Give the backbone structure.
Amino acid sequence: MPINIAIDGPVGAGKSSIAARVAEKLHILHLDTGAMYRAVGLYMLRRGIDPQDERAVREALPGCRVDVRYEAGRQRTLLGGEDVSEFIRTPEVSAATSAISQWPAVREQMVAMQRQIARECDLLMDGRDIGTNVLPQATLKVFLTADPRERARRRYLEMQEKGMPDTYEEVLAALIARDEQDSGRKVNPLRQAEDAVLLDSTRMTLEEVVEAITGMVKGAQA
């Protein structure tokens, strides 16, 4: 039976970066589920569809083809065959993603794809509802979080490196709004699974978090 690891947590907790490092150390695949949802958000924006309009999103969804491939151990996200890995990390796409991910039709399509991949190989998934919904029988579940101001600081520095003009205050406000939307949505809201390990990374380095989760995985396999 494949080893499945679920890492959930709020925006800015560093899930994707940490998940990639853990998967690399364990020599298993890292499926960035958030990137898959972001591709759907980008698809809607490109077509001028309001992400808050559930009916419009649902009607446009059949034409949205999202795929993933792995190059040198890293996931590349494809939208209609186009590699959009670098286009899905903007604040506009983040906002659209939070909106479209609340709609049942979108989640059903993405979850079906994610579960199929998990049945086929050992992997690590990170997102908002992996342990509670996508992989409820995961070998290990981790809820990774950090203080909102620390998460905003990390996100702000990351955006500065990319030349984005947002201020720290704007990043913090957007992060708090995203937390509220993700936790308050009716369909599979962000929450810690009952059997998940809580890991607060506020005062931890990335490498310390990676080592902690790697140790948990080895303990779960023992």
Q: What stands out?
A: The chain has nine helices and eight strands.
